[in-house]
Every structure is written in structure tokens, then in C-alpha cells.
Amino acid sequence: MEKRVVVAIDGPAGAGKSTIARRVAGKLGFVYIDSGAMYRAVALAALRGGADLDDAERLEQLARATRIEFEPGGARVLLDGEDVSAAIRAPEMSPAASKVSVFSGVRRALVEKQRQMGAAVSVVMEGRDIGSVVFPDAQVKIYLDADPQVRAARRVSEMEERGQALVAAEVEREIRERDRRDSTRADSPLLRAPDAVYVDTTALAADEVERVILEIVRKKAL
Questions:
Q1: DSSP letters spanning 62-128
Q2: β-pairing, 6-10 with 123-127?
Q3: Lowest CB count within 10 Å: 75, 99, 142, 154, which one?
Q4: 0.90 exceeded by the pTM?
């Protein structure tokens, strides 16, 4: 049987998880799984269906019923067969996804889906509780971090490339609030797993972070 490897990359918003996880997965030939996109997809389904983002029972139902897929070798996210890659990245989806993610039922439903994905193929999965909750036995665990101001600047730059203008100070405020909410929630809070390798990306370019992560993966799992 082919050896399956799980690379778990955790960290706060704007630390570079999505960019690095996608690049590392591409270099290793693994499937890239964006767990945050899964919560955004549930939030999108809820908003489209007029569901209350405080209705835990309804949100859990949506999380279990929706089919969320990641296109192999690409960056497309499919929600019940529809490409929602752009829709889930709209500015209002970030706070909506954070609200959805606080509910235990939603998290349990999506963790089940994530574990099914990781059991089928080698993956690079990123989020906030991948190494601590979803895959506590992952062969490789990374915790990416960066200064909040730098993370905000990265998010503004990312959105500008998509034609959306944001105010840096407002983005930083939202990032700090999301850090607080994610790290203090009762269920699966944002935290660094004891055996995760800490990587501060504040002063590093994406190429440098990629090299660091690939070296860690090769030493630990390949």
C-alpha cells in the first residue's frame, strides 16, 4: 500500500497558510486541502439559503448535507458541484466563516469530511486546528505565524489583486478580532500543537517559507 502522508499547517489568518500549503502540495504531488474554504463554503450556503448564522442546528445540517470538493491539481473549490472559489473569498465571507466555525456541530461535521480526505490520499491541509484536532497523528505539523500588521498588509495586497480595495487599519482590526475569537472559542481553538514546528513568516518571502517547509517535510516524512 502506498504510504499516505499528512502535512498539517496551522496558524492565524494572513500568516500565509493557503499560499504555502498550495505550493508545497504542488511540489510534493499531494492534494491541497483548504479547511478554511470549507467553513467559508458552509457560510456561503447559509447566507444563500437565508439561514441565521446563530442557528447552530441549521448550520450543522448544512455542514453535513453540502458536498465540498477540491479540484485535484487546482485551486477550485466546489460546493455541491458549483465552482465557488471566487464567491467564498468575498470580504464578507471571512467574518461569516468565523461565526460559523464556533459551533461544535459544524466543526464535527467538517472534521469528518477532512479525515475522509486525508485517509484517501497524501494531503497538505491547512487551517487552525489541523495538527491539534483533525490530524493529531500527522507526520508533519507546522505552525505558521506573523505579526498582525504584516498579515493585514498581505490580506490587503491579496484583495487588491482581485480588484477589491480594503483599508489596512480596518483589516488589521478584523484580523486581531478574529485571532481573539478563534483562540478563545471553547471548541477546537486556534493553538500550536506541542509537536508542531513554529515558523515565523513576518520577514520571509513565500519562496523562503516554501523551502523551509519542504525541508521539514523531507526530514520528517519522506
A1: HHHHS-EEE-TTS--EEETTEE-TTGGGSTTHHHHHHHHTT-HHHHHHHHHHHHHHHHHS-EEEEES
A2: parallel
A3: 75
A4: no
CA pair distance 43, 55, nearest whole angstrom:
12
Q: 3-class SS at 140?
A: strand
CB 80 within 8 A of CB 100: no
Range of the structural domain that residue 73 is part of = 6-220
**Structural domain tally of the chain?**
1
Cell output for 19: 499560499
Residue 1 located in a structural domain: no
Taking only the tens place, the pLDDT of each residue in 6-22 is 999 999 988 889 889 99
Residue 184 sits in a domain whose CATH number is: 3.40.50.300
